[in-house]
What does this fold into?
Amino acid sequence: MDPISIHVNGRSFRREAEPRMHLGDFLRDELRLTGTHLGCEHGVCGACTVLVDGQPTRSCITFAVACEGREVTTIEGYDDDPVMRLLRPAFTRHHALQCGFCTPGMLTTARDIVLRLPDADEARVRLELSGNLCRCTGYQGIVDAILDVLQQQRDAPNVEFEQLRQRLSAPRMATVKPLAAAVSNDVPTHAPGKSPSVNGATSAELAEVDPVAMAKAKAKGNAIEVHFDVPYAVDQVWAFMGDLPAVASCLPGATVDSHEEEKVRGSISIKFGPMSAAFVGAARLQRDDAAKRAVLRGAGQDSLSKSRTQGDITYRLEALSADNTRVHVDMVYALQGPLAQFSRSGLVKDFVRRMVADFGKQITRRLGGEAVVSNEPQPTVSIAGMMLSVLWNHIRGWFGMPPRG
It folds into this structure.
């Protein structure tokens, strides 16, 4: 047992807890603050969300001992909070709760949204809420309540509210931009002056990756580093990698709908057993010819599951010899929505590594002179089949056998 000194809802506590005890259990069992609800206990559903030093935190996957000396705020600690004085009646007014199990975490996340994103539209609110699950309301009332509070602050700013917003959110707000209607065709935008778009989003909006989301994704481990070798000169490989349609033709399941200089719009199809997804979006390529380094930034959505993804793919070319090039790939990605549960698996990372390796083989074929047929259908990526192969390689590794390519 380790002693913990912690500040909760403005009071100081000193208790003993096992090193493996999570903050949610500590709050409920040791401090009897049962307003914090534990649902999935895997950091997925968001019901257990509390504030730790002012930041929303999943208490079910945060160790209590890691909160030594921290300031924790639970749903019981908002009585004098100017934001909650607006949010709670708005939730009631818009019927934003039913059984109430998700409500403590939902209110905590809502508070973060209205403080951090004063210009958020409906699409942005839905995106920010994607980490909090509700099985009752259908989310519309929750979204309406948050938009209500945001509009109240625009129409008649509350001094205490604005002071809290400046103190807690100013450092983070500088890099956050509304996503307008990039989330769904069914979601209207409240931001005026948007340019005409395809599927409800302009190329600029879809390709504008949120740096805050990317930083969070990297902190969560949604980052992959891999490389592959191509038996051609570095200048030849670099020239090919700048041709976005040609590169897309080497990626199974990818299609290009339009291409303009460094910008591209298209889709990529993925199959996971009986479940399929087709992410439609846009990307922008930035290249440094001198360093042989490039960054592909993109974002997209699956119209069926409403899942959204965004990411940075950085690649750098290294000349191993006159006729051999190594391509280093560094991927950072964020996935929101129903498909987000698959982004946390180690097998998924192995799958991506194998897919990148296959991508390298396709580039070698194209550089070798194999023609690309313009109307040739791209094969759909079968994650299930790929993962079976990955799992088999793991088993072979346990017995000291070399993996199969």
